[in-house]
Design brief:
Elements: H1 9-29, H2 32-40, H3 44-54, H4 62-75, E1 82-87, H5 94-107, E2 112-117, H6 125-134, H7 136-140, E3 144-146, H8 157-171, E4 176-181, H9 187-192, E5 197-202, H10 208-211, H11 217-220, E6 223-226, H12 234-249, E7 261-264, H13 273-290, H14 292-319, H15 321-335, H16 341-354
Parallel strand pairs: 1-4, 1-5, 2-3, 2-4, 5-6, 6-7
Helix pairs in contact: 2-3, 2-4, 3-8, 4-8, 15-16
The structure holds guanosine-5'-triphosphate and magnesium ion (MG).
Length: about 350
C-alpha cells in the first residue's frame, strides 16, 4: 500500500507537538499539590513532566516549577535518598559503570534514578541516544529512571535544573540518585555540590594530569575506582590503584575524616561493583553517625540559596537599562585590564545603590 500523507514523519512530528501542547496545558491546570501527590505515588509520567518543567527555558514556567518544588518539599519525602556523583574523563566508562552499578543497586532492593550534568555542550539527539544505549538494561528496568542531561541553556543553568530534578526523583521514591558528569571540565564542582558521595573513576595509562590525579578533582573524591580492570588491562589497573592510594596518602585528610579508599572494577563485566556499593553504604552510616552527612546537606542548601540570590540580583540589576550599559562598559574595561575587577565591582554596586 502506498504511504499516505497521514503516516508521514512530518505529520507524526506535528502530532507529537500537538500532544505536547495538550500535556503541557493539562499540567498547568493541575494543582501543585495534586502533581506532587502523583510524584509521591511514583508516577513516572508525572516525574518526566515535572523534570521537563524545571528544565524549561521559559521564564513563564518558573512560578509553576517553584510551586511544584514547594509542594514536593512540604510533602517531606526526600529523607532517605543517597546522592552519588560519578565523574571521570570522557571515555573512562562512566555510563557503562552506571548501568551495572544501577542494576546491582536494584538487586539490593533500591530504586535508581540517573541524571547527568553537561554544561559544556548542547546535547544533540545523538549523544542522548548514545547514553541510553550504554544503559539499555537500566533504561528498561521498572525500578530505574534514566534522564539525559538538560540542554546547556536551561534557564538558570543546568546545575539548578539538575539539583531540582534530584528532589523530584527523590519525591517519586528513587532512593539512589546517580549523577554523571558529562563532557570535559566545569561539571565536577557542580555535581560535587549536589551529591552526598563523590566517586572518581580512573583508568590506567591515561596520564595523571588528564585525570585530575594532581590536586583538584582528586581532592573532591570520597572514593576512587580504577575502572576497566578486565582482560589484559587487569594488572595495569591494579598497579594504578596502588599508585593512586599512595598519592592519596599525601593529601590532607578530607573534612569528613574517612580515608579515601581505592577500588578496581570493571563496569563492562560488572566486577568489583558490590565492594564499591558496600563501601558507600559504610560511608553513609559513618557520616550519619558523625553528623557529617546532615552538615554537608545543610551547607549545600545554604550555598545554593546564596548563589541563586547572587545570580538573581545581578540579573535584575543588569535588566535595568542604565545599569546594563554600565555593566557592559565595566565588563569590557575589566576584560582589557583597564580597571581591576574589585574597583569595577565596587563602582557597579554603588551605582545599583544609587539607582534605587
Ligand atoms: N574494557 C572495558 N571497556 C569499557 C569498560 N567500561 C566502558 N568501556 C568502554 O569504554 C568506552 C566508553 O564507555 P562509556 O561508558 O561511554 O564512557 P563514559 O565515561 O560514559 O564516556 P562519556 O559519557 O563520553 O564521558 C566504550 O567503548 C565502552 O565499551 C570496562 O569496564 N572495561
Ligand atoms: Mg557517558
Amino acid at each position: 500500500m502506498p504511504q499516505t500523507s497521514a503516516n508521514s514523519p512530518k505529520r507524526d512530528a506535528a502530532r507529537n507537538r500537538a500532544a505536547d501542547r495538550i500535556r503541557r496545558a493539562a499540567a498547568q491546570r493541575q494543582s501543585p499539590d495534586d502533581w506532587a501527590n502523583e510524584l509521591f505515588e511514583g508516577d513516572r509520567d508525572a516525574l518526566s513532566r515535572a523534570i521537563t518543567l524545571v528544565e524549561s527555558r521559559s521564564l513563564a514556567d518558573r512560578p509553576a516549577a517553584e510551586a511544584l518544588l514547594e509542594a514536593v518539599i512540604r510533602g517531606d519525602r526526600n529523607g532517605d535518598a543517597v546522592r552519588v556523583g560519578i565523574t571521570g574523563i570522557p571515555g573512562v566508562g562512566k555510563s557503562t559503570f552506571i548501568e551495572e552499578f544501577g542494576l546491582s543497586l536494584i538487586r539490593g532492593g533500591h530504586r535508581v534514578a540517573v541524571l547527568a550534568v553537561d554544561p559544556s555542550s548542547q546535547r544533540s539527539r545523538g549523544s542522548l541516544l548514545g547514553d541510553k544505549t550504554r544503559m539499555e538494561h537500566l533504561v528498561r528496568n521498572p525500578q530505574a529512571f534514566v534522564r539525559p542531561s538538560p540542554a546547556a541553556d536551561a534557564l538558570g543553568g543546568v546545575n539548578r535544573a539538575t539539583s531540582e530534578a534530584i528532589l523530584l526523583c527523590e519525591a517519586a521514591g528513587y532512593d539512589r540518585i546517580l549523577v554523571e558528569t558529562v563532557g570535559v571540565g566545569q561539571s565536577e564542582t557542580a555535581v560535587r555540590e549536589m551529591t552526598d558521595i563523590f566517586l572518581l573513576l580512573l583508568i590506567s595509562g591515561a596520564g595523571d594530569d588528564l585525570q585530575g590525579i594532581k590536586r583538584g578533582i582528586m581532592e573532591m573524591a570520597d572514593a576512587v575506582v580504577v575502572n576497566k580492570a578486565d582482560g589484559p588491562g587487569a594488572d595495569a589497573a591494579r598497579r594504578t590503584a596502588q599508585e593512586c592510594a599512595s598519592a592519596l596518602h599525601l593529601l590532607p585528610p578530607a573534612p569528613h575524616g574517612s580515608p579515601i579508599e581505592v577500588f578496581t572494577a570493571s563496569g563492562l563485566e560488572g566486577r568489583g561493583l558490590d565492594a564499591v556499593i558496600a563501601h558507600l553504604d559504610q560511608l553513609e552510616q559513618t557520616w550519619k553517625e558523625s553528623g557529617w552527612w546532615q552538615r554537608q546537606r545543610t551547607e549545600q542548601r545554604l550555598e545554593r540559596f546564596e548563589r541563586q540570590v547572587r545570580e538573581r540580583l545581578l540579573e535584575r540589576a543588569v535588566q535595568h537599562t542604565a545599569l546594563k550599559a554600565l555593566w557592559e562598559r565595566l565588563q569590557s574595561q575589566v576584560a582589557h585590564g583597564q580597571i581591576s575587577p574589585y574597583s569595577a565591582a565596587s563602582f557597579f554596586v554603588n551605582n545599583v545603590d544609587s539607582s534605587k
